[in-house]
């Protein structure tokens, strides 16, 4: 029994864990499926899919084919004849089938990195779960016919599940519960506001880009030679499985390995890590750097913005790396360093479910805990799931704004128990639920639009496997306080779930009513007050929930002269103005449905158009004699 003694204890888990190659110690229970390394790969093709799959349950460590020795799942397209490696061993982790009784079995799972579909080159992910339930009577290695498959591969964020009963799902032995090492605590969050617009900037969290226990794997090709980089942005990892690392180095955040399976460390992410903008222009990206001072080595990653890419992932540039004996420099693109709205008000850290913001004489104040329904019950609604152009089964949404709902009865919840958001659907007679807001993670609250209280409040929740949820609370005065209006549909973009909630509790309220007396002759003051007195001593009272209608008696004026009807030019301008409004509104709605973000349509085009107009004005205004030349002259 050989275990790779890499201890990784998340403070939020209910069990300690030591991982090995096809072996794991969950608290005191030791599980092993190392004998699966001697069996042939499993082939499976869903009847309703054009894809076929090759699944491996355990690697034998043989490196006769360096391109496939650590691959556990391959997807093949019957139409194009192409294939793609979906899951590699570095991403695998373990969790119990039932945290209340770990001896029932375990789940061997991996979250997929984005890949190009062999069908149409679209960007997709396909997570893998292998569920092994304890059955001491089953010992055979010929398990092809024992496995129950469940594959969802028609959407951009799919899942491949293989579950079966076997003696390998029973604990082989019990050991003393391992003592956890101190938690790796590094603040990997970076916030930098634009000088020109403090409400926008870079708000990045490197920990959200972490992958499995052995980091993200990327193959960097330099001068025709492949180098295998195992990288974790905000964590330490031990030597990758089946590779050989220096015995004196236990942890690294960047292992660089060669085809001979030898690895070297190029730095450890710690409290001294360096993450900063490339220069004062935040749109040019960020640079992450950390060093191995003892070995005089360094690692540098340049990240630039890519909006249309799954959250929490890096699209690597695999052919521009610079590698030497003392440094590694690589680059990639990610959504994490794109400019985004940054809220000016955050909830008090000791009251994570409360939020308050004031603008002028109005404020929004909400306590999500007061909106909870029942003790661990939550609000429920049958919803349709909008997953782009892909199909998704009718689902059930379970939502508790600030509290936990345990995994629904008779449902399979992938080893999770307590969540604030569940999205459940029927999978061949089994209710399966994914937690998009787990209680063990903190949630955040902010204005949906930083400039307008009436647009509502957004609550952001986080789950495992880079799942997250954006819940937008919108004002509805017709609802009773403490009640919620649930959606009929939700939006699912890769692993990000978004939906709207109606609530009276989020409606802006007036906080400083005043009484103003004005002498009114012809023009009314635009200031809204509780009582306005006119020269005729007429009094009008305003409510807090509806805009007032201002009326006044003024001296009669001569009837204005009749003017001719509007000409063709006026109609033309009206048509252009209406078309522009429709373009902006429809474009914003399209971008929101597509990516879950509120953004102007074709933003990059209009940005470039503005720069061209600016350059033309400067050129004409200076008669072509602009100091330093024009941008055109520099081409």
UniProtKB/TrEMBL annotation:
Gene Ontology cellular-component terms listed: endosome membrane; Golgi membrane
Source species of the chain: Tritrichomonas foetus
Subcellular location: Endomembrane system
Name of this protein: MRH domain-containing protein
Domain of life: Eukaryota
PROSITE patterns for the chain: MRH (PS51914)
Domain MRH positions: 186-340, 351-509
Residues passing through the membrane, by range: 570-590
InterPro entries the UniProt entry points to: Man6P_isomerase_rcpt-bd_dom_sf (IPR009011), MRH_dom (IPR044865)
Keywords in alphabetical order: Disulfide bond, Membrane, Signal, Transmembrane, Transmembrane helix, Transport
Primary subcellular site in the record, as a coarse category: membrane
């Amino acid at each position: 029994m050989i275990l790779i003694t890499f201890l990784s204890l998340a403070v939020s888990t209910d069990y300690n864990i030591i991982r090995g190659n096809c072996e794991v110690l969950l608290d005191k229970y030791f599980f092993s499926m190392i004998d699966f390394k001697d069996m042939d790969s499993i082939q499976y093709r869903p009847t309703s899919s054009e894809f076929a799959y090759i699944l491996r349950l355990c690697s034998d460590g043989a490196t006769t084919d360096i391109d496939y020795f650590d691959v556990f799942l391959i997807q093949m397209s019957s139409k194009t004849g192409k294939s793609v490696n979906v899951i590699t061993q570095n991403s695998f982790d373990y969790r119990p089938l039932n945290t209340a009784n770990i001896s029932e079995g375990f789940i061997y799972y991996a979250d997929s990195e984005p890949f190009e579909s062999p069908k149409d080159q679209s960007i997709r992910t396909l997570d893998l779960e292998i569920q092994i339930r304890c059955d001491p009577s089953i010992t055979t290695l010929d398990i092809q016919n024992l496995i129950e498959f469940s594959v969802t591969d028609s959407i951009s964020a799919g899942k491949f599940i293989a579950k079966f009963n076997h003696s390998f799902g029973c604990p082989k032995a019990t050991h003393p519960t391992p003592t956890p090492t101190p938690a790796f605590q590094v603040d990997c969050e970076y916030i930098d506001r634009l000088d020109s617009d403090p409400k926008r900037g870079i708000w990045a969290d490197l920990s959200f880009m972490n992958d499995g226990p052995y980091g993200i794997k990327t193959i960097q090709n330099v001068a025709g030679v492949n180098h295998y980089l195992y990288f974790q942005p905000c964590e330490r990892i031990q030597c990758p499985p089946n590779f050989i690392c220096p015995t004196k180095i236990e942890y690294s955040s960047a292992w660089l390995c060669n085809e001979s399976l030898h690895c070297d460390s190029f730095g450890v992410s710690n409290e001294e890590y360096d993450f900063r903008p490339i220069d004062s222009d935040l749109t040019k990206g960020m640079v992450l750097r950390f060093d191995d001072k003892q070995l005089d080595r360094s690692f540098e990653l340049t990240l630039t913005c890519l909006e249309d890419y799954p959250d929490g992932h890096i699209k690597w540039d695999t052919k521009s790396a610079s590698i030497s004996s003392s440094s590694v420099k690589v680059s990639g693109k990610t959504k994490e360093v794109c400019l985004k709205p940054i809220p000016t008000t955050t909830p008090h850290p000791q009251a994570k479910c409360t939020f308050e913001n004031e603008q002028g004489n109005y404020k929004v104040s909400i306590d999500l805990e007061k909106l909870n329904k029942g003790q661990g019950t939550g609000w429920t609604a049958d919803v349709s799931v909008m997953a782009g152009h892909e199909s998704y089964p009718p689902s059930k949404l379970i939502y508790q704004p600030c509290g936990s709902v345990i995994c629904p009865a008779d449902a399979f919840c992938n080893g999770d128990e307590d969540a604030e958001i569940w999205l459940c659907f029927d999978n061949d007679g089994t209710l399966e639920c994914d937690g998009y807001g787990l209680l063990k993670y903190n949630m955040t609250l902010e204005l949906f639009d930083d400039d307008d209280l009436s647009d509502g409040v957004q609550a952001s929740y986080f789950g495992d496997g880079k799942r997250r949820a954006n819940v937008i609370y919108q004002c509805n005065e017709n609802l009773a306080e403490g009640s919620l209006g649930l959606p009929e549909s939700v939006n699912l973009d890769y692993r990000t779930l978004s939906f709207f909630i109606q609530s009276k509790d989020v409606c802006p309220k007036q906080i400083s009513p005043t009484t103003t007396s004005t002498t009114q002759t012809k023009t009314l003051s635009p200031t809204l007050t509780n009582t306005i007195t006119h020269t005729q001593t007429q009094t009008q009272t305003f409510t807090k929930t509806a805009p007032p209608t201002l009326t006044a008696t003024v001296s009669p004026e001569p009837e204005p002269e009749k003017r001719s009807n509007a000409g063709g030019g006026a109609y033309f301008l009206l048509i252009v103005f209406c078309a522009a409004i429709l373009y902006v509104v429809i474009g914003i709605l399209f971008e929101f449905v597509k990516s879950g973000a509120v953004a102007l349509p074709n933003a990059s085009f209009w940005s470039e158009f503005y720069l061209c107009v600016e350059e033309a004005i400067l050129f004409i205004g200076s008669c072509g004699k602009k100091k330093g030349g024009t941008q055109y002259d520099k081409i």
